[in-house]
Amino acid sequence: MTTDETIAALDRGEIRVAEPQGDDWVVHPEVQEAILDYFRSRKMEPREVGPFEYHDKIPLKSGYDALGVRVVPPAVARYGAFLSPGVVLMPSYVNIGAWVGPRTMVDTWATVGSGAQIGADVHLAGGVGIGGVLEPPGARPVIVEDGAFLGSRVIVTEGVRIGREAVIAANVSLTASVPIIDVTGPEPVEYRGYVPPRAIVVPGTRPKEFPAGTYQLACALIIGRRTEATDLRTSLNDALREID
């Protein structure tokens, strides 16, 4: 496919930057390269949308009624992003190459970066920042699997994968290097770049020695698991109360 054909297929949801394969995900570097080529080949031009004026290289997505997507002004999705039926965009932003699954809520001021893969029945609460990953081609994008709940001001970047039905408390920041420590057993179990399915994660710190003294560095703590009785659309507060 040509670059333009690839971006059009992305926009229709016929291809993806990454997709699940068994228990893992496979990345399609040729799709990431096409997005980068599309950026390079496009020229800046003004665009008017109602009372709003933009000056950019990438057109805006359109045809939401046919897609069955609710878009609340002034939410913006770029052409080349795919939004599944039942998606709700509050005033938010979805970048090119992103894929958003059915019935997912992208809440106010949340951002879904280039190539990010967001599953079905996900809630991205207010101000969530999902980073974009396109380079180097082949790098894993941020992945949020089905049924996950990300609380307000959560930040997820550098290809971190959030397992299905995980609950991430407000203000957790996850990068490829931030330790994610399961403290529910007799010994800590540490993850990097991955939150296991149904984990409940809160902000934490742990001490680290430096020449100038001991200081607390940010980490994330797994303090429990969602129970079978926890509804997929439960609030973050309800899930955290179960762990007291």
Walk me through the topology.
Blueprint (H helix, E strand, L loop, with lengths): L2 H10 L5 E4 L2 E4 L1 H13 L3 E5 L2 E5 L7 H4 L2 E2 L4 E2 L4 E2 L4 E2 L3 E2 L4 E2 L4 E2 L4 E2 L4 E2 L4 E2 L4 E2 L12 E2 L4 E2 L4 E2 L4 E2 L4 E2 L4 E2 L4 E4 L6 E4 L1 E2 L3 E12 L2 E13 L10 H7 L2
Helix pairs in contact: 1-2
**Fraction in helix:** 10-25%
**Largest β-sheet summary:** 10 strands, mixed
Order of helices and strands: HEEHEEHEEEEEEEEEEEEEEEEEEEEEEH
Radius of gyration: 19 Å
Q: Based on Cα principal axes, name the global outline.
A: globular
What does this molecule look like?
By secondary structure, the protein is mainly β. It has a single domain (3-177), classed as 3 Solenoid (UDP N-Acetylglucosamine Acyltransferase, domain 1). Helix content is 14%, strand content 36%. It is built from four helices and 26 strands. The protein has a ten-stranded mixed β-sheet with strand order 5-8-11-14-17-20-25-26-22-23, covered by helices on one side. The protein has a six-stranded parallel β-sheet with strand order 6-9-12-15-18-21, with no helix packed on it. It has a six-stranded parallel β-sheet with strand order 7-10-13-16-19-24. Strand 1 (18-21) and strand 2 (24-27) form a beta hairpin. Helix 1 (3-12) packs across helix 2. The longest helix is centred in the N-terminal third of the chain and has 13 residues, at 29-41. The radius of gyration is 19 Å and the shape is globular. The model has no long low-confidence stretch (mean pLDDT 93).
